[in-house]
Amino acid sequence: MQVVIICYPKCGTCQKAVKWLKNNEIEYEYRPIKEENPSVEELKLWIKMSGLPVSKFFNTSGLLYKEQNMKVKVKTLSEPELIDILASNGLMVKRPILLAGDRVLVGFNEDDWIKILR
């Protein structure tokens, strides 16, 4: 199974996730989210595969989220509009995103990652 982790290198949660992958000797491909922002098509697929609402893909603790008043917009804009916003800037996206086969996990929860990767 191919494993891809989409991260921002300055993100503490991403650093923790990468360390966990290394400690568990799991081979992975690293994709920097700022330089290789997810496309609209990727986001649509990942949202469907994850079973999560689009709102769970937003980095709610990020400066951009707060500056653009996304807390209100997430409740009022359509899913396509929200996906366009996510695709416009990788720092708007919650991370890390783990792609493992046909599974997508958003954020780092060790128990969830163990279920998928072990």
Portion of residues in helices?
Answer: 40-55%
Main sheet: strand order: 2-1-3-4
Cα-based radius of gyration, to the nearest Å: 14 Å
* Unreliable stretches covering 5 or more consecutive residues: none
CATH superfamily: Glutaredoxin
Instruction: Return the CATH architecture.
Output: 3-Layer(aba) Sandwich
Text of the CATH class: Alpha Beta
Which strand-content bin applies to the residues? Answer: 5-15%
Number of strands: 4
Question: What is the chain-wise order of helices and strands?
Answer: EHEHHHHEEH
CATH fold group: Glutaredoxin
**Count of individual domains:** 1
Fill in the keyword field for this structure.
Glutaredoxin; 4 strands; alpha+beta; globular; 4-stranded mixed beta sheet; 118 residues
Helix and strand layout, with pairings?
Elements: E1 3-7, H1 12-23, E2 29-32, H2 40-50, H3 63-67, H4 70-76, H5 79-88, E3 97-100, E4 103-106, H6 110-117
Parallel strand pairs: 1-2
Antiparallel strand pairs: 1-3, 3-4
Please outline what is shown here.
With 118 residues, the chain is of the alpha+beta class. The protein has helices at residues 12-23, 40-50, 63-67, 70-76, 79-88, 110-117; strands at 3-7, 29-32, 97-100, 103-106. It has one domain (3-117): Glutaredoxin (3-Layer(aba) Sandwich), CATH 3.40.30.
